[in-house]
Records
---
Amino acid sequence: MKALGIILIIGGIFMLIFSKISFAQTEDVADTNLLFMNQQKNQTMALTFYTSGIAVLSGVIVVLAAKKKIN
């Protein structure tokens, strides 16, 4: 459980630092027996401040809850 909380905290911090992620997506355009064509599209995904804050906060809660012993 503690490892999950640490991963959430680190992921949230990376989301704060890198607010946009760019990636390429390949899409099939035409497919025949002799010819196969695809197209590559560049896309950008924006990571908001709220989602990174929620990830960090939930990671802290998970780490603190993991310190408590549950009987």
Note: The CA atoms of residues 1 and 66 lie 6 Å apart.
---
Amino acid sequence: MAYSADDALGSARGKRFSRRWIIACPPVLVLFGALAYGALLLLAPPLLWVEAIPRPVDAIVVLGGDGPPRAARASQLYREGMAPHVYVVGNGDCLHISLAMINAGVPASAIGIECKSGNTWENALFSLPLLARDRIGSAIIVTSWFHTRRALATFQALAPYITWLPVGAKQNPNLIDIAASRDGWAVVLEYIKIAGYVVKYGLDPLPTIPRRQAAAQDHDAPASWLG
């Protein structure tokens, strides 16, 4: 089969285009990924963050993971007299969180521990016997700010008879700091986890808190969000 000069010229042009695309593709993908990453972080406060104004309740439930900030926030709430009982739930760092709270002035006698649960659903499921034993009717959930929506939805799904008030461990997240830290990827992963919970557990991703308790519900982003 014979090839003309036009065929050869077209083939050469095609090869040059392919080489240019191979060279240009990685930077384009990096740029697209960076834009998507930034967009997901910017959308995180209105989509992932629900916050209640802390008020006196029966208990404080501290979820495992990102232990030091959660321990510090829960200890602060306890010292402010928000609850007489504290429950630390989740394997991995439950003992570390408990010890940090004791060092922060929370009596060991006030702390209950559940160290077997490995995810948010199990946090709620495995803590319910402790809450039922102590007749808990209202509780503050302390977790990472971007985890508050899924945590609230999960605890409401498994124990709708308890009044749940979500409180983020860090009250004023900073976008620049988060983007440059591992928390940024944790925020991005949270979108995937919510979708997974909707599929696996039929979770309602739009939990509600008592209107008079809403604090961060109506914000787009706090002033400190952008630094």
Note: The chain has two domains: 1-48+174-204+218-227, 50-171.
---
Amino acid sequence: MGRPTKRTEEIIKRVIEGLSKGTPLAVICREDDMPDDDSIRLWAQKDEELFRAIARARQLGFDAIADNLRSTARGNGDSTGDFQRDKLIIETDLKLLAKWDPKRYGDKITQEISGPDGAPIQSQAVSLDPAQEAALHQVIEDAKSRIK
């Protein structure tokens, strides 16, 4: 018997529940009575409401994973009792969270440049006299010839 390809409310409910608990879509779809993960993605591409529901469920799932990591770090929850093993599990999941949701769990650093008192930077066009313009063109041509 093949995998189901027909979308049902029960299948969607199971996908949303699984994602909101932090279970990856591929794992949810490994169950025999579930469609493959590509089918779910295609359904979401065609249905904006489903797309949003999956995105919300994933956000909740990321938070569930982070909460579980805190519990594991304290020796509770999924802790194996082996310090090194728990550390590996925590670091691996933290790296995955940083990739999956870099804005909330990543180390992304942004830099904003502004003028005095946070004002926008002002720029001005500069006029060159003919001699300066010729010198600038010569510098550019010299640079191009070195690159080749």
Note: The radius of gyration is 27 Å.
